[in-house]
Design goal:
Blueprint (H helix, E strand, L loop, with lengths): L1 H21 L18 E4 L14 H9 L10 E5 L2 E5 L2 E2 L4 E5 L3 E5 L8 E2 L15 E2 L3 E4 L2 E7 L3 E3 L3 H8 L11 E4 L2 E6 L2 E3 L6 E4 L2 E6 L2 E3 L16 E11 L5 E3 L4 H7 L3 E12 L4 E5 L7 E11 L4 E5 L9 E7 L4
Parallel strand pairs: 1-2, 2-5, 3-6, 4-9, 5-10, 6-11, 9-12, 10-13, 11-14, 12-15, 13-16, 14-17, 16-18, 17-18, 18-20, 19-21, 20-22, 21-23, 22-24
Antiparallel strand pairs: 7-8
The structure holds 2-acetamido-2-deoxy-beta-D-glucopyranose (6 copies).
Keywords: Glycosidase, Hydrolase, Signal
GO molecular function: polygalacturonase activity
Protein name: Parallel beta-helix repeat
Length: 338
């Protein structure tokens, strides 16, 4: 009995590492831009008139501050330093070769007025807003067509103050699909690490059409009953590594996606080479790791290692729907820490 268990274990481990090697990977996150954790230039948000009193709206300060490091893009990039304080803001746009640094005690607070979250087109692989036909609110921290972006710090916090959005959703008062906390689109070389995410209006972290993404050492929290507050949703993205995260939310902790129905099928952008290592957390309504339900572009090469869930609904769930198309292939699951 014991021996056959051991044999099975050895076979599983062998299959796991074998499959991992065949895609040319290691078990841990590999960084395409690790050197970017140390930027040669730095500027503070306070130099742009930002006020960290939790009341002053700092959208313009963030946007102006993010224009400035542009001049360092060919000189190793720059760091935008956010010191301790409560920095209220609407949605703002990142640039390439940037580190957004949230110091210890720094909180970026999402505005509770929907007009501070501009409305943008639906994603081509979804064809319409996820919740309502038509457009959608842009994420609090947004980026498109970027390379080499780091969002990190000393356990600073990004707080979406999502309860107003959850109420609008429950009362049918939304005009557009709810926004994520961080969405990076068509971007490469991304690191999101060493921070806390709280109370996202919708999903927390959404890399879509991205490549080479590391999400490491995050705490992501939202009430267990909050609607659709997924932790990390790699969507039509390749080479994404999620490691050492603690996630307790109202929906899937990690959800791997690749577009929706006919739009996802025709956009045909799969998610592949997704590693999830040492994920700990709780979800009473959903799954530790979900694949789908939007997986119309296909999902493959998934490596899940050391998933620790407590008082949760489902461990790992592969979700599809009739007519959704796509495929789910080569999902490897291993528990090494016993
Ligand atoms: C993605 O970003 C690259 C580099 O910035 C750009 O050349 C390309 O047109 C973008 N593609 C889409 C579909 O946005
Ligand atoms: C990203 O690239 C696409 C395709 O080239 C372009 O349509 C879009 O405006 C670009 N977005 C930004 C913010 O530069
Ligand atoms: C995780 O992040 C915290 C700050 O949020 C930091 O103190 C700690 O050293 C980090 N751990 C690792 C392994 O990087
Ligand atoms: C970071 O802050 C969160 C929220 O305050 C806390 O739960 C977590 O333990 C902290 N992490 C570290 C490494 O200090
Ligand atoms: C929806 O639109 C109405 C009419 O413009 C507006 O009064 C309301 O505040 C909007 N709701 C949200 C959640 O933005
Ligand atoms: C996280 O923080 C630790 C402790 O400060 C640091 O050593 C590490 O490089 C950071 N990791 C990332 C990926 O930001």
């Amino acid at each position: 009995m014991k021996r056959s268990f051991l044999l099975l274990y050895v076979l599983l481990v062998h299959a796991f590492y074998g499959a991992l090697c065949s895609v040319g990977g290691s078990l841990h996150c590999e960084y395409s831009n690790l050197a970017s954790l140390h930027r040669p230039h730095s500027v503070s948000i306070t130099e742009f008139g930002a006020v960290g009193d939790g009341v002053t709206l700092n959208t313009k300060a963030f946007q102006n501050a993010l224009f400035y490091p542009n001049s360092f893009s060919d000189k190793g990039g720059a760091k935008l330093f956010v010191p301790a304080g409560q920095w209220l803001t609407g949605s703002f746009d990142l640039i390439s070769h940037l580190t957004l640094w949230l110091d210890s005690g720094a909180t970026i607070l999402g505005s509770t007025s929907s007009e501070n979250w501009p409305v943008v087109d639906p994603l081509p692989s979804y064809g319409r807003g996820r919740e309502l036909p038509g457009r959608r609110h842009r994420s609090l921290i947004y980026g498109q067509n970027l390379t080499d972006v780091v969002i990190t710090g000393e356990n600073g916090t990004i707080d979406g103050q999502g309860s107003v959005w959850w109420d609008w959703f429950r009362n049918g008062e939304l005009n557009y699909t709810r926004p994520h906390l961080v969405e990076l689109m068509n971007s490469t070389g991304l690191i999101i690490s060493n921070l806390t995410f709280l109370n996202s209006p919708f999903w927390n972290i959404h890399p879509v059409y991205c490549r080479d993404v590391v999400v490491k050492n995050l705490t992501i929290l939202a009430p267990l009953e909050s609607p659709n507050t997924d932790g990390v949703d790699p969507d039509s993205s390749t080479n994404v590594c999620i490691e050492d995260c603690y996630i307790v939310t109202g929906d899937d902790l990690v959800s791997i996606k690749s577009g929706w129905d006919e739009y996802g099928i025709s956009y045909a952008r799969p998610s592949s080479k997704i590693k999830i290592n040492r994920l700990t957390g709780q979800t009473t309504s959903s799954s530790g790791i979900a694949i789908g339900s939007e997986m119309s572009g296909g999902v493959s090469e998934i490596y899940i290692k050391d998933l620790h869930l407590f008082n949760s609904n489902t461990g790992i769930r592969i979700k599809t729907s009739p007519g959704r198309g796509g495929y789910v292939r080569n999902v490897h699951i291993l528990n090494e820490a016993r």
